[in-house]
Amino acid sequence: MKTRRIFISLMAVLMFAIIFFGAALAALCISSNATKIPSSVQNKDARTSTLSQQSETVNVTIQAFCFTPSNMTIMNGTTVVWTNKETFVSHSVTSDTKVVNLETGKRSPLFASGDLGPGASFKFQFNATGTYNYHCGHHPFMRGTVIVT
Ligand SMILES: [Cu+2]
Prior knowledge:
With 149 residues, the protein is α/β, with parallel strands linked by helices.
């Protein structure tokens, strides 16, 4: 019984250390901003700009427990690609925005990558304007925002 109590205490200390370490890492994660300049602004031909708008892709790096850039503004229709550049750690990309399935009535994230191991990537195309916050399912202190204009 005594061994079990010691084990529980050790687990509590370990859990606290993980949470504390996570918070420290989140604080170290320098907030970075990026604005994707819409190509349509530079392009005068309407048809061409629509096409280039659709094929627009922007990248987010997941490294050192950070989404970089953590805050970005993109054009409607842009695809965001998140890539895990860690050596060992898995992450995920999970939308804070929930959508309701009209058939089942269940609420689920607008996008959810599932487990992203080192080197893995996930993409999502944003087709509606708004502010989309997201987090890492494994490390909730890891947060990012995509603003679609
Ligand atoms: Cu993570």
